[in-house]
Design brief:
- There is one protein chain.
- With 280 residues, the chain is an alpha/beta fold.
- It folds into 2 domains: 42-137 and 237-273, Periplasmic binding protein-like II (D-Maltodextrin-Binding Protein, domain 2); 140-232, Periplasmic binding protein-like II (D-Maltodextrin-Binding Protein, domain 2), CATH 3.40.190.10.
- It is built from 11 helices and 13 strands.
- The N and C termini lie far apart (65 Å).
């Protein structure tokens, strides 16, 4: 008799014993109250897969300095790259950074091509319904950026009827549209600033730190911040929705908490942005 038959025979005898002596079988002994095998494995599925393959695949643009970009030697670097490396180190695997255009990154997360997307992703109600987010690791002050000779945009209401440029699904585009602007879709940040400097759009909404980084690299650009949006956005790391991602999300949250508590996250922020954007 093999092990499977022994197991089935034992189960039948146990059931017969309980049927004959109800007083000896408590409700806790009933099969439906027993732990369901496989639940814990399902919860840890994504993290287990990552450990088994020895790599974690992290999606980012690679063109959005200083979040994710290439330095003068062509090496991928940035605030989000440093954070992604820390997460990989915590798990004990190699970080596999995959670059792509913004609009395709979340779709790749949905399809399971990426384990994480670390790219300064703003946490919105709509995204929170579609993805599981980490705790915020940064806070983004949104600047309305214009050419230096513009004086007609002084309030958010002045954006009504104006043209702006952003990647279409970004929170910056959503904010611009909420105030009545017409948003031109672009592929990346460089294209946004090219349109602005050429006078083909009236303004662009983007991160304050991105503006600081761009003007530091292009002091001749002649652009300026006209004003700031009234609210600061929370930045988090989206994961595919579902229980299979929960153990990985916990690891990500642990890394963020540890880096905040040690001061390392603030240090990396100052390194790349020149200011600490890790506190609300």
């Amino acid at each position: 008799m093999n092990h499977r038959m022994l197991h089935c025979t034992g189960a039948v005898l146990a059931a017969a014993f309980c049927a004959g002596m109800l007083s000896a079988c408590s409700p806790e002994d009933k099969p439906e109250n027993a732990p369901k095998a496989g639940n814990e494995a399902a919860v840890q599925d994504l993290l287990s897969q990552i450990k088994a393959r020895g790599t974690i695949t992290i999606a980012m643009e690679g063109t959005w300095s200083p979040w994710t970009y290439h330095d003068k030697d062509g090496k991928l670097t940035g605030f989000d790259v440093a954070l992604g490396q820390k997460i990989a180190d915590k798990i004990g695997v190699k970080a596999n950074f995959v670059e792509g255009k913004w609009d395709g990154l979340l779709a790749g997360l949905d399809a399971g091509r990426y384990d994480l997307m670390i790219n300064g992703v703003g946490i919105t109600k709509e995204r929170a319904q579609a993805y599981s987010f980490s705790e915020p690791y940064a806070y983004d002050r949104v600047a309305v950026i214009v050419n230096g000779d513009r004086t007609d945009i002084r309030t958010m209401q002045d954006l009504r009827g104006k043209t702006t440029a952003n990647t279409i699904s970004s929170t910056y585009a959503e904010t611009a549209e909420r105030y009545g602007a017409r948003v031109t879709g672009v592929d990346d940040l460089n294209q946004t600033f090219e349109l602005l400097r050429a006078g083909r759009i009236d303004a662009t909404l983007n991160s304050e730190v991105t503006y600081v980084d761009y003007t530091r690299a292009h002091p001749e650009s002649g652009i300026k911040i006209a004003l700031f949006a009234p609210e600061a956005g929370e930045i988090g790391i989206p994961l595919k929705k579902g229980q299979q991602s929960e153990s990985l999300r916990q690891v990500v949250n642990d890394v963020i908490a540890e880096m905040k508590n040690s001061g390392e996250l603030a240090k990396i922020s100052v390194q790349f942005f020149g200011i600490d954007i890790t506190k609300k």
